[in-house]
């Protein structure tokens, strides 16, 4: 059997942010698709998002939802690209009309990691430790367990954040483990933060693929690279975020994964920004979506909306 000619090949355009991590994720998706389809040519189209352009303000100050996705979504809607690749934790659960979350390849590590050149684990940090992070969730989860920690805002790409650790004399910074692993910077990690204590962001460690509704041709191309277990887990997490109206501007985490006995475990966490009011629900079962619904109902009954500022 001869290889398909160029005339027979199908070209698909994938939209990506320009950061090193974003391009790693996009190239990973492209490689998976090309491996699954011999007759496919992939073109990567890069662009800057609002979140990439404004680095001197915190994420909530910029505007919260969609700051890393809007420009890619505009390209999707205009057919300038066929699909967009995101860090799933950046993809809102309420998408523009006509767009949909199409799924994810297999998820990487979902945890957060502590990076420090002064201390070997989080329990060694002094009571007045200065921690740098741009995440309200990470700050609130740390404050809930270490109420005397001090915090500094941290934005920029992975390399820039690591440079600031020593430059500004921080005791530690906190970042997603998956980002460091994907960029082959695992040796910078001092310790991973346990996901059952420091519940990760919704979708953390997963790549999110977004497409236009009605693009059955694109869905058919994506089908072989999607990971069923990952999609089930992150879909449950996104239900928690959607039902609690969460996003970058509120302290909310959800993490769903398989257990050793073949079932599922879901941790859902909400807290006040100062870490003084915290709710944490843990459920096990066989249906991630049903577990997400139950977790939300319990959290709402216990006052989650008030804690998150929705009442």
Automatic annotation (TrEMBL):
Cited PROSITE patterns: PORPHOBILINOGEN_DEAM (PS00533)
Catalytic activity, reaction form: 4 porphobilinogen + H2O = hydroxymethylbilane + 4 NH4(+)
Membrane-traversing stretches: none
Database matches in Gene3D superfamilies: Periplasmic binding protein-like II, Porphobilinogen deaminase, C-terminal domain
Free-text cofactor note: Binds 1 dipyrromethane group covalently.
EC number: 2.5.1.61
Pathway in which the depicted protein is active: Porphyrin-containing compound metabolism; protoporphyrin-IX biosynthesis; coproporphyrinogen-III from 5-aminolevulinate: step 2/4
Cofactor(s), names only, from the UniProt record: dipyrromethane
Keywords, comma-separated and alphabetical: Porphyrin biosynthesis, Transferase
Catalytic EC class: transferase
The protein's assembly and partners: Monomer.
Protein name listed in UniProt: Porphobilinogen deaminase
Phylogenetic placement of the source organism: Bacteria, Deltaproteobacteria, Bradymonadales, Bradymonadaceae, Persicimonas
Gene name tied to this protein: hemC
């Amino acid at each position: 059997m001869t290889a398909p000619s160029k005339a027979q090949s199908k070209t698909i355009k994938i939209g990506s942010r320009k950061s090193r991590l974003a391009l790693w994720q996009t190239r990973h998706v492209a490689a998976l698709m090309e491996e699954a389809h011999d007759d496919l040519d992939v073109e990567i189209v890069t662009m800057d998002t609002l979140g990439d352009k404004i680095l001197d303000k915190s994420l909530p100050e910029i505007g919260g939802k969609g700051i890393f996705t809007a420009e890619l979504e505009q390209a999707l809607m205009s057919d300038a690209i066929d699909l967009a690749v995101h860090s799933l934790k950046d993809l809102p659960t309420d998408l523009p009309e006509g767009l949909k979350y199409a799924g994810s390849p297999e998820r990487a590590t979902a945890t957060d990691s502590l990076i420090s050149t002064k201390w070997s684990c989080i329990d060694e940090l002094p009571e007045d430790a200065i921690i740098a992070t741009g995440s309200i969730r990470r700050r609130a989860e740390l404050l809930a367990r270490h109420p005397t920690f001090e915090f500094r805002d941290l934005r920029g790409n992975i390399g820039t954040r690591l440079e600031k650790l020593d430059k500004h004399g921080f005791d530690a910074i906190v970042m997603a483990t998956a980002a460091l692993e994907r960029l082959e910077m695992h040796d910078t990690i001092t310790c991973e933060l346990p996901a059952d204590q420091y519940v990760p962001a919704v979708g953390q460690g997963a790549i999110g693929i977004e497409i236009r509704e009605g693009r059955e041709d694109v869905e058919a191309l994506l089908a072989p690279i999607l990971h069923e277990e990952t999609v089930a887990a992150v879909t449950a997490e996104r239900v928690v975020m959607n039902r609690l109206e969460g996003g970058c501007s509120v302290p909310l985490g959800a993490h769903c994964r398989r257990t050793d006995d073949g079932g599922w475990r879901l941790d859902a966490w909400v807290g006040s920004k100062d870490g003084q009011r915290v709710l944490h629900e843990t459920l096990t079962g066989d249906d991630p979506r049903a577990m997400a619904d139950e977790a939300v109902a319990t959290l709402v009954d216990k006052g989650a909306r008030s804690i998150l500022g929705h009442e």
